[in-house]
Amino acid sequence: MSSFTTSDASPLLAEDPPFQFDQTTFEAFVADLESNLDLDAIAGAGDRPEDKRAKVIELQIEVLENHCLDIAAGKAALGKLNAAEYGPLMDRMNLAVSCAYVRGLLRGKPETLKESGEMTREECITFLDACVAMLDLKETSDALRAEFKKAKFGTQQVVDGALKSGDGMSGMRLVHEEIVRMQTTMLECCGIQADFGVSQLGLVRTTFAGDEEVLQKLDTFVERMAKAGRDVLKFYEEGRSMGSLADKVPMQDDGTTRVVKVSHKEVDSDAPSAQKGNIEMKEREERKQMDMARQMAVMQQDILAELLSWDEEERKEQLAFCKQVRDEFVQQAMSVPPAQRAAFMTTVNPDLQRKLIMLKLWDDMVARNGGVAPEIKKTKGANPPVEKADEGDGRSIAR
Asked: Which superkingdom heads the taxonomic lineage of this protein's source (predicted)?
């Protein structure tokens, strides 16, 4: 547009150039936005998620008004930003907005919760989007790490000079239970009674069978929740391999190590052997993790070889079946009561795991090919080109 009008309807000269952001002005706008999204105002905007969303938009407009003469021109300028040039700042802006919205949601639950009927499409999307955004909050990652730490270090004791502690598997169970608790909390913050909401989520793939947007959001939700757990484990694994003993043993606020039970009065004299025992235990765990990673890499290579050995028609049939199995498994998992879901997730049998891995490997190949299924050219009688396919690089199924 060649001209625009200020908020007080005073016309600008027709030859004035349209408003546009540069790096400096856009960064100033983002910083202003980050500091002026009033959580109290968002939380108090109303009971419904759409009320809080509307308040976030209103606050964005107020900030935008401080940076340009005309709101329409400001919105147009935002829409013209080049992601290649302004990508990091755009991510900051979007993160600030989504985090403010979710924090506003989490400030309180509506007085009346929906507990019968059916979850609508809008309610389903609102919940799934809010849960995914919730994982971007620092307080979420802090809470999940704290749950893992409870099991990993919460029962530490010095026995016969050796430092004993909980195990990573029990830590991951606590992390999973915390993720489930967060989901049920978010359901009620979105106005859906928890038990009713859980039962409805188990029906999403049936209720919205032909709705690609809803199903895609559900897949993103499931993947992000799984990734949240993996990120916690990765955080402690990296800290253990790179840090000192002080990084591995939790400290109290006063800087002292928390020890639940001590079998000897003279603990200090046993400190070196306790450290040695702890380090040896960690090394054994690391070797175990590496062995498991190698086994997974071998399995993925084998699965990829089988996948690439099929002709196109057979591959389509097998992948369609894998997708059906995956969808049924996710639907079953979502229908299990939250308190029992951790135990249910351990029931994955080898055949199901193989199908899930196969589908994940193929989806990764499609994603890296711009969303289009790659054309597999294979010489008759030749071995499948596993060594040329970087998709079999040891990636985890849930990555």
From this structure: Eukaryota
pLDDT tens column, 281-299: 667 766 666 666 666 666 7
| 373/313 Cα distance (integer angstroms) | 13
Structure tokens at 195: 């038990």
Residue 390 has pLDDT above 60, yes or no: no
Give the separation between CA 245 and CA 283, rounded to whole angstroms: 12
Query: What's the CA dihedral at 296, 301, 302, 306 to 10 degrees?
Result: 140
Residues 61-82: tens digit of each pLDDT = 999 988 887 888 888 989 889 8
Phi and psi of 162, rounded to 5°? -115, 140
Token code pair at residue 103: 């924090």
CB-CB contact of 112 with 48 (8 Å)? no
The answer to whether the beta carbons of residues 153 and 129 sit under 8 Å apart is no
- For the chain, what are the domain ranges? 23-106, 121-392
